[in-house]
Design goal:
heterodimer, A: alpha/beta, four-stranded antiparallel beta sheet, disordered N terminus, disordered C terminus, B: alpha+beta, nine-stranded mixed beta sheet, two-stranded antiparallel sheet, about 50% helix, binds adenosine-5'-triphosphate, binds magnesium ion
Chain lengths: ~260, ~375
């Protein structure tokens, strides 16, 4: 099925794709020190799909995510995000692309000096909608179960709550694409699960596409699709069930029980 | 609803750091004010005797460096402008150094002597306004002695008799004037006595031409008219003008200007370094947040604005207590020196130091902001 995506005649209409990557190569460094980290990646993410990207450390997951997020410049290949080709875009245009993407990082990166609501409002201000920014921020925080923490500063929030504020900040402008890099890595099992559940439910409601990097096998169950990246190459691309079956054959031990419950 | 001020929130969040930054800026502001204050006070002691001259306009030779290093010019110049509209009176002033003998030690020392027509109201000192002062000055070999003269000149009591340039001299009265930087002491005498002491000095060559204007006449306008009437061997100054003329000479010819300007520069650099340290630490601590903002779609310009706002806030927050403290210190200095070092604030300096403080903080902001602007959102994933 990974092969099929490269055959252009089976390509779904471009309008249904949130992300379309074709023959992408990426190198770090220049000249003799140049080191290729992504090899001939072709990948399509239909709108509304929740995709988990896994793979060993150093396999290039973060690099792929930053490329899709218009945070890095493309070198070889083509990359369309939300209908826009990124190749050849200037800095200003790239910034405009980013405004339609929700970013969630491993660290929450909230301003300690601002309240939860203000941190979320910072994102709303980008849209120029000053009149209702507080309202929007509070609504989004409530949707993440933080209605009673709206005016708290990050230092008086738990790790999971802080990450939920960061998610509120990423979602408040209703982006069509969410890029998340190990959003649960810094959280304990329970709050990690909470955060992922919120992310899962909200993105389903909003109908947005999610590309999430994770090492955390306990949260694989929220995915429609799991992509495995090894040494910069797409190793497998499968539905959740197929992935689990292939992995259980390899006697994967650390898949926790609760992924089968959901 | 207003835009959230990240600059303000960041500064307020780290109270200790904010206090250090404010103290640093205030410290630099105080140092700058004190340097400028001392410089201004010293320079004003060099020229404040002009305040006691009863004139609105001053004629001097273009070769005159400051009052005690003057070149004489023809008295006719005064007659030429005596008829100009608004002129109430013109008064010649003679000046030269004399050797004054200390009657107790017998040591002679150069003293600066003014000669004038005792019928002219050339000076404003109250002692010279008294009716019999004119009579006393008209007596031969009689002089008035400056009470601000250095003690090395000997007793200043009325009736003291000694010698000046080998000629008998009697102190007939005293006044308070001061000799600025050049003179250790001053004398005032009638023009008749002046030519006697300094023979063969003719009375038709004068050192300063004093011009008194009718009340309500603008000195600047009359000065302009006079300049067009007079030849090039004489310059016309208003009172502030001649004070500035002499001040500039003293600033250039002495190290006062250099020393205190260095003081200002050093304070400026110290302040800039402190502000830079604070802003740099602040930016470093918030680098992931700034990078996140960039990932969200904020442009470098916005981060630039945050840092610059922080810099301006620090400038203002530090300037105000600095100004207040400087005013207190000015007062203390003036009191401690019993008025001999009149350190005083003026509006120009308030504005100048405020601009300097803003410049100092913005400069530090601009240097430290590069780090925030280069925050790479790709590096924080
Ligand atoms: N800025 C960089 N300069 C040079 N090499 C880099 C840079 N960032 C990453 N790399 C290299 O590129 C490769 C892919 O890195 P990347 O961060 O994408 O991996 P990853 O799959 O996200 O790993 P992890 O699971 O540990 O986060 C690694 O070999 C890494 O050493
Ligand atoms: Mg990574």
């Amino acid at each position: 099925m990974f092969k099929a995506q490269q055959q252009s005649k089976f390509e779904p209409s471009r309008d249904n794709l949130a992300v379309q990557i074709q023959r992408l190569n990426y190198f770090f460094g220049a000249g003799d020190l140049s080191k290729q980290v992504l090899f001939d990646i072709s990948l399509e993410l239909p709108k509304g799909q929740i995709v988990i990207l896994t793979g060993p450390s150093g396999s290039g997951k973060t690099t792929l995510l930053t490329l899709a997020g218009a945070l890095r410049r493309l070198q070889e290949g083509s990359l369309r995000v939300l209908g826009q080709e990124l190749v050849g875009l200037g800095d200003r245009a790239l910034v405009n692309i980013r405004r339609n993407i929700g970013f969630i990082f491993q660290a929450h990166n909230l301003f300690e000096s601002l309240t939860a609501s203000q941190n979320v409002e910072m994102a709303v201000e980008l849209t120029g909608d000053f009149a209702s920014k507080r309202q929007q921020a509070v609504a989004m925080l409530s949707a993440l179960g933080l209605d009673d923490r709206v005016d708290y500063k990050p230092q008086s929030l738990s790790g999971g709550q802080k990450q939920r504020v960061a998610i509120a900040r990423a979602l408040v402008n209703h982006p069509k694409l969410i890029l998340a890099d190990e959003p649960t890595a810094a959280l304990d099992k329970k709050s990690g699960r909470d955060v992922v559940n919120y992310l899962h439910n909200l993105s389903r409601e909003e109908g947005c596409t999610v590309l999430m990097v994770t090492h955390d096998n306990r949260i694989l169950d929220v995915a429609d699709r799991i992509i495995n990246l090894v040494d910069g190459r797409l190793e497998s691309d499968s539905s959740l069930n197929a992935f689990v079956q292939s992995k259980t054959k390899d006697s994967l031990t650390d898949i926790s029980a609760d992924m089968f419950i959901m | 609803m207003a835009r959230i001020s990240v600059a303000w929130a960041n500064l307020m969040h780290e109270r200790t750091r904010l206090m250090v930054a404010i103290s640093g800026v205030a410290f630099a502001v105080i140092l700058i004010f004190m340097n400028l204050g001392f410089m201004g006070a010293l320079i004003s002691t060099a020229t404040n005797f002009y305040e006691q001259f009863n004139a609105d306009l001053f004629l001097i030779s273009p070769e005159t460096l400051e009052i005690s290093t003057s070149t004489a010019f023809p008295r006719e110049r005064l007659y030429q402008i005596a008829g100009v509209d608004g002129v109430e009176r013109t008064m010649p002033l003679y000046s030269e150094y004399l050797l004054w003998r200390n009657p107790e030690t017998g040591v002679s020392r150069a003293i600066f002597a003014y000669g004038f027509n005792p019928n002219d109201p050339a000076f404003l000192m109250p002692e010279l306004q008294e009716e019999n002062a004119r009579h006393i000055l008209s007596r031969p070999d009689t002089v008035f002695m400056d009470r601000f003269s250095r003690p090395e000149f000997g007793p200043q009591d009325i009736g003291t008799t000694t010698e000046a340039d080998r000629r008998r001299a009697i102190i007939g009265g005293t006044y308070f004037l001061g000799g600025g930087f050049a003179a250790d002491g001053t004398l005032i005498m009638s023009d008749q006595n002046f030519v006697r002491y300094l023979a063969p000095r003719p009375l038709n060559l004068i050192n300063v031409g004093l011009v008194k204007l009718n009340p309500g006449i603008s000195p600047d306008k009359v000065a302009e008219t006079m300049r067009s009437l007079l030849p090039a061997d004489v310059d016309v100054y208003t009172k502030p003008g001649i004070i500035q003329h002499d001040s500039e000479y003293w600033l250039e010819s002495t190290s006062i200007g250099f020393i205190f300007s260095m003081g200002v520069v050093v304070s400026f650099v110290v302040g800039a370094v402190i502000v830079y340290q604070i802003l740099f630490t602040d930016i470093r601590d918030h680098l992931p947040e700034y990078a996140t903002m960039k990932a969200m779609g904020y442009r470098s310009k916005y981060l630039f604005k945050i840092v610059l706002q922080e810099a301006i806030l620090l400038a203002v927050l530090g300037y105000v207590p600095g100004l207040v403290a400087a005013l207190g210190l000015y007062h203390l200095t003036t009191k401690a020196t019993a008025g001999t070092l009149p350190v005083a604030m003026n509006g120009g300096r308030v504005i100048f130091v405020l601009s300097l403080t803003l410049l100092m903080c913005c400069l530090s902001g601009l240097i430290s902001v590069r780090k925030a602007v280069t925050a790479d959102p790709a590096e924080i994933f």
